[in-house]
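Hey, resending since the last one bounced:
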Amino acid sequence: MEKGNTVINAGPVSVAMVYRKELMPDQGLMIQVYGDVDGKDTEILRFDCFDQAPHYHYGPENHNIRLPMDKTTAGNPVGWTLGQLRNNLPGMVRRAGYDELAAKLGSHPIQTPILDQIEEKARELARTGRRTVHHKLERLLEGDMVEAGNIRFGLEFREVNNDRGLAIHVLSDVADEEVELLAFDCFEVGPHYHYGPRNQDIRIYWDTTTAGDTLRWTLDQFKSGKLKSMIERAGYPSIASAVDESLVQSLMPKIEARSFELVAMNSKSNGGMKDKQKTKAQLIDELEALRQQVAAL
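The structure tokens again:
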């Protein structure tokens, strides 16, 4: 693993840090302990303080023992890691397979002011490095925001770079601000969905081989009653508990019909020459047939 770009010299070792947000669906601060081994700057320990699957490595360049952090018992992964650096570093270095370096740390431990500096920088990076996404709903048409009690559904056909497709946004109000709880980007090339775009931004790319049509998959999750648990996973348990499931289900035919209507409208308006040459009457007939198919589901 490449060495983090924030490096603090701590006597016998150095501590490197970087916030990793290129991971999907995870992200978080990486803290590495480096030491000189036979003249080579060597990664001794690595702590991956991720949101979803935090873990750490003994001797990444040696035997690479990888162990999980249990957030239930260890608490915050960054806080737990900083505690190990303060109280348990020589023992961990020894288990990583570097007895000589562990002995140096035993006789010359990292000084408290340096440990304080490491902690201050680690917490700053963990706070400021977070990846979030703000979908601005710029292509949302009037009337395509469906109110459903304490949540609402925004439907828009998005075109982003070289991709396009219907997006369904699940939103609510938090501290008088509209916040996106979930986002489903049912794109043609890279379809994916987000838990808490403005919070944890857990981004999951669909396997279309198993999921099939991603818009249909999304609507099926709503219709099968999974919306509450998805909102809770996004980090909004109080909003999830107040969702009116019967109201949501009563609105699903409207949401479903309009979703497929938007897809049909955009596939026709951006299709090949044959589609562009169709008359307005033909398009209206096709849309009506589509509505009847949806109503029959």
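Residues 6-128 form one domain.

Sorry for the duplicate.
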